[in-house]
Specification:
CATH topology: Nuclear Transport Factor 2, Chain: A
Helix content: 25-40%
Organism: Actinacidiphila polyblastidii
Oligomer: single chain
Distance between the termini: 21 Å
Structural class: alpha+beta
Strand order of the largest sheet: 2-1-6-5-4-3
Strand content: over 45%
Pfam family, one: DUF4440
CATH class: Alpha Beta
Domain DUF4440: 12-99
Largest sheet: 6 strands, mixed
Order of helices and strands: HHEEHEEEE
Number of helices: 3
Shape: globular
Protein name: SgcJ/EcaC family oxidoreductase
Length: 123
């Protein structure tokens, strides 16, 4: 595994807020951690921008939770960090679902935001 404490701290800042929004079933809070032009690929067709992120999370079942584990990080530029995570989504009425999540987070004047979100199911 390759990651630095600084890169991991950046990702945790963004992912902790994302996780809290998912756990609270607050789609607008989740979407607020994304850039206005973020490319978002969950397990449905992709979207661009916060509106698509909010709509995706609004469609998720009540009681869904997220737990993540950072596996890899890379600092691609001073204001750009790549993260590769495992995420386990928990549900109240069915078994949990584990996915792989790749993120690109970028620094804006007021903090770090997700610019690219890509989920994949691995066998």
């Amino acid at each position: 595994m390759t990651r630095t404490a600084d890169e991991e701290a950046i990702l945790r800042t963004v992912l902790d807020e994302w996780q809290q929004g998912v756990d609270a079933h607050d789609p607008e809070r989740v979407a607020a951690r994304f850039t206005e032009d973020a490319v978002f690929q969950g397990l449905h067709p992709y979207s661009v921008g916060r509106r698509g992120v909010a709509a995706y999370y609004a469609s998720q079942p009540m009681g869904m939770t997220a737990r993540y584990e950072i596996l890899e990080t890379r600092r691609l530029a001073d204001d750009l960090v790549l993260g590769y995570q495992n995420v386990e989504f928990g549900f109240t009425d069915r078994p949990s679902l584990t996915v792989s999540l790749s993120l690109l987070v970028t620094r804006r004047t007021d903090g770090w935001y997700v610019a690219h979100y890509q989920v994949s199911l691995l066998p």
